[in-house]
Amino acid sequence: MSIDESEAPAPHRGVEPLLTDLGKAAELDPDMATRRDLTWVRRVAIGLWAIGIFAEFWVHGLAFDRTRLILLMCFGMFAACIGRRRAITVVVDWLPFVLILLLYDWTRNVAQLIDMPTQWHLAPDIDKWMFGVNPTVWLQSHLKHAEPTWWEVVTSVVYISYFIVPYAMAAILWVRDRAVWRRYAACFLATTFLALVGYTLLPAAPPWAAARCTAEQVVDHPRDPPCMHSMNPEPGGGLLGKVEPRHDGAAPYVERISWRGWSVLNIHNASQLFTMAQGKSNLVAAIPSLHAGLTMLLALFMWPRVKALGKTLFMAYPLAMAFALVFTAEHYVIDILLGWALAASVIAVCRWVDRRWLIPRQERLRATAERTDGEITNQKQELDI
Question: What is the model's pTM?
Answer without folding.
Answer: 0.81
